[in-house]
Specification:
Layout: E1 3-7, E2 11-12, E3 18-25, E4 32-39, E5 46-51, E6 58-60, E7 68-73, E8 78-83, E9 92-100, E10 105-107, E11 111-115
Parallel strand pairs: 2-11
Antiparallel strand pairs: 1-3, 3-8, 4-5, 4-9, 5-6, 7-8, 9-10, 9-11
Length: 117
Amino acid sequence: QVQLVESGGDLVQPGGSLRLSCAASGFTFSAYAMSWYRQVPGKERELVARITNFGGTTNYADSVKGRFTISRDNAKNTVYLQMNSLKPEDTAVYYCNARSSWNREHWGQGTQVTVSS
């Protein structure tokens, strides 16, 4: 069955770094654009970063540009989110998303990132 399993969430101090991973299985990974979203209680889920099927194009929310980097390894069916210079406002549950050109979509279960001193 389709699975997206996020890992790497943790408690980190402001200014610190984390790398999130999302391991995919059960579908053709290279046929899907991959994204990271985040959500805090009481707010809508927001797009953080997106990468196309073979990594040729990336897009970022303005709030994370220059600090976060999305990448993918199609041989390992894994997408990553490198997060540097973390701020308290980056605290959220981070979700992995896969979306095909025919709008088939899959979500992971989320991983908690907490930025606090």
